[in-house]
């Protein structure tokens, strides 16, 4: 059952939106592009500013990301990787927060993509971790929602069903206070848009994601001093 309250909800964490984006991006790239991980500041910026798989879209500068890292490192959520000529960064989320891998995956997706249903989370987690079924996703979400106070309290909340939506969505509490009514309004808007969207929107999103991947490969090849695939 979802928590119901007229007051905003909070958690022991109070990350900014930028800090959550930086942390979520490091968590994503550790699983999806392990060969190029840890990430340089430039590559991390590209990942944070992707137009695909991000909600909301951000256009962060290296300076903003560096400031976020300066906050996340003392919290033991991110660390600088030793032994590299260029500074590179990796997340320390599971140990820093004290959650298993499956829970970390769900929290990372919620930080990057905003509120989602259990079904959406299972689908979006495919490149991170393969959950056996939706009930498995729901089980880990419920554990995060029922997290006892001695371990830091809840890290997610199940929102009430938005008007026009078929399923309830979950959202994380890592950024502190949550305005549940505003999220419900956003959910109703998204449900309306999703209901009228067609195949063309999905194709456009896939094309954008492919373009982002190509740019990332180009940058990585430049940093490594090798030619991109297909070039001599």
Q: How would you describe this structure in keywords?
A:
single chain, 232 residues, mainly alpha, Arc Repressor Mutant, subunit A, three-stranded antiparallel β-sheet, two-stranded antiparallel sheet, 9 helices, 50% helix, 7% strand, globular, disordered N terminus
Characterization of the model:
There is one protein chain. This protein has helices at residues 17-32, 41-48, 62-72, 93-98, 101-113, 118-124, 134-145, 180-196, 199-224, and strands at residues 39-40, 78-81, 88-91, 156-158, 170-172. The protein has 232 residues and is mostly helical. α1 (17-32) crosses α2 (41-48).
Task: Indicate the topology.
Blueprint: H1 17-32, E1 39-40, H2 41-48, H3 62-72, E2 78-81, E3 88-91, H4 93-98, H5 101-113, H6 118-124, H7 134-145, E4 156-158, E5 170-172, H8 180-196, H9 199-224
Antiparallel strand pairs: 1-3, 2-3, 4-5
Shape: globular
How many extended strands?
Answer: 5
The CATH superfamily title: Winged helix-like DNA-binding domain superfamily/Winged helix DNA-binding domain
Order of helices and strands: HEHHEEHHHHEEHH
Under CATH at level 1, the class stands as Mainly Alpha
How many domains, in number, for the residues?
1
Q: Mind telling me which CATH architecture this is?
A: Orthogonal Bundle
So how many helices?
Answer: 9
Beta content comes to 5-15%
**How helical, in percent, are the residues?**
40-55%
Helix-strand category:
mainly alpha
Largest sheet: 3 strands, antiparallel
Average pLDDT figure? 85
The CATH topology label is Arc Repressor Mutant, subunit A
Note the gap between the termini: 58 Å
Q: Which residues sit in consecutive blocks of at least 5 with pLDDT less than 50? A: 1-10, 187-198
Strand order of the largest sheet: 1-3-2
